[in-house]
């Protein structure tokens, strides 16, 4: 089915920042592919919220760390909507542990999901974007890639790698008018931060100049800007949205 709307794929869109991004893009007129891995109920919630606002979206279950799943995700988008204009690499995990306590399988799982997952998603969308000579790739990184945060070695390593990919691809893909940027959120009120002990959350909150955690919608709003025509001259950048934490 051909579609006159622009089309966005959002990975990890069943909750938190990913859900907010999917809803915000749909509210801006995008047709959205809601990628999720395990949380079918959360993905259905994202879909319902989009449809309640008159938006258009479909679900796609698949692991970002699986190349075939990512290939099928893009094929699904093209089959339903005819194209892909925006890829938001949002899916990620955080296992908060000091490096000396981090097991090899926990390290590998973090890298595979947060970094390899983005690589596989990008590989899957490049051909259709290059053919149409237009596209946006938005990587959701983390303030941990800018400022060291104790207990997040694997996470920071994966997100720092994501920033490196962003800068390289911005140069490689500029001839095809494909813009690549990263957003590095600070502490955002999501299920992920909700798993932290309250004492740790208080310490993190006190370290933020604005003295509060961000909201998923504040990240989503910046994604919609980078996806818009107003951001035609923005590529290769790492944008910290963190209440001043990395200043």
UniProtKB/TrEMBL annotation:
Give every Ketoreductase domain span: 6-186
Similarity-based family: Belongs to the short-chain dehydrogenases/reductases (SDR) family.
What PROSITE patterns does the annotation carry? Answer: ADH_SHORT
Superkingdom = Bacteria
A GO MF label: 3-oxoacyl-[acyl-carrier-protein] reductase (NADPH) activity
Per the UniProt entry, the Enzyme Commission number(s) are 1.1.1.100
UniProt protein name: 3-oxoacyl-[acyl-carrier protein] reductase
**Which keywords does the record carry?**
Oxidoreductase
Q: Which SMART domains match?
A: PKS_KR (SM00822)
């Amino acid at each position: 089915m051909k579609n006159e709307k622009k089309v966005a794929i959002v990975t990890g869109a069943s909750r938190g920042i990913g859900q907010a991004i999917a809803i915000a893009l749909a509210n801006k007129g995008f047709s959205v592919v809601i990628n999720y891995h395990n949380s079918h109920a959360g993905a259905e919630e994202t879909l319902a919220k989009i449809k309640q606002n008159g938006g258009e979206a479909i679900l796609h279950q698949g692991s970002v760390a699986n190349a075939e799943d990512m290939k099928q995700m893009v094929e699904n988008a093209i089959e339903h909507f005819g194209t892909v204009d925006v890829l938001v690499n949002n899916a990620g995990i955080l296992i908060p542990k000091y490096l000396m306590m981090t097991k090899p399988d926990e390290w590998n799982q973090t890298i595979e999901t947060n970094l390899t997952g983005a690589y596989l998603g990008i590989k899957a969308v490049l051909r259709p974007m290059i053919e149409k000579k237009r596209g946006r790739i938005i990587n959701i990184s983390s303030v941990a890639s800018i400022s060291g945060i104790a207990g997040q070695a694997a996470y920071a390593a994966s997100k720092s790698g994501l920033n490196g990919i962003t800068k390289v691809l911005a140069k490689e893909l500029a001839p095809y008018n494909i813009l690549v940027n990263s957003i590095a959120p600070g502490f955002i009120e999501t299920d992920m931060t909700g798993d932290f002990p309250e004492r740790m959350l208080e310490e993190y909150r006190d370290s933020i100049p604005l003295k509060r955690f961000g909201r998923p919608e504040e990240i989503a709003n910046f994604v919609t800007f980078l996806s818009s025509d107003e951001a035609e001259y923005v590529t290769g950048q790492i944008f910290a949205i963190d209440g001043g934490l990395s200043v």
